[in-house]
Here is the input.
Amino acid sequence: MGSSLDSDAIAGFGAARAAVLASVAEACARVGRAPGEVTLVAVSKTVAASRLSAAVAAGLTLLGENRVQEAESKAPLLPGAQWHLIGPLQSNKARRAVELFDVIESVDSLELARRLDRLAGEVGPAEGLGVYLQVNVDLDEAKSGFLPDTLETELPALVELPHLRLLGLMTVGRLVDTAEQSRETFVRLRELSRRLGERLPALGPGLSMGMTDDYAVAVEEGATVIRVGRALFGTRDQQLAQWQGAAGRP
Ligand SMILES: *Cc1c(COP(=O)(O)O)cnc(C)c1O
Here is the structure.
């Protein structure tokens, strides 16, 4: 059983990171953006902390998790990492989330925002807790997130919350066959952000959108944050094989 910090593992993650950043740079070049405008969140859900230490050593220092408990078990083992919550947050886990995460990308209701604001005032960073407002721009019944009309109505109350910094909007695209089919979703989020930001400049310009299959399209449409899992860590099946290999096989 080799050390998780072996140089092969670090080199592997370094190459995967470089490949994603190269695609980001190409997408930026196609539309005249600067690659520095795009932040890569490495989505590390289901990836063991032992593997993640090599990923962090390879420069994947910003990690995205969709469960509070999973992040809670990994964070103490990865002191060099920063954490974004990208999954639905239950109110009984909100306090722990504020303590653990640097940014919460999945704020999907005014009620949750109010709770986070209160908690951030107690245990959050002095400069305020950074959040994204998750929007269900496709009006997809299977998705969480503010409906665009609801967000428009509730945004004046959201921008008044003193302990939250509204960094921007976030969306999870529909399940699609080709990346190109996601473009409309990303355009909708960008347009909504522009319209709301004109009215209420306290809403930041950030756009968290795009995952492994469609992040290049998202970057073309203005993403400032992309959330990429499989392109960096492999599929869940590959992860399982890796884990069994590391454990000396059952
Ligand atoms: C899992 C997940 C991702 C990453 O998906 P990949 O297809 O593995 O890149 C991004 N955003 C959210 C909200 C996720 O749950």
Summary: The chain has a mean pLDDT of 94. The chain is about 45% helix and 15% strand.
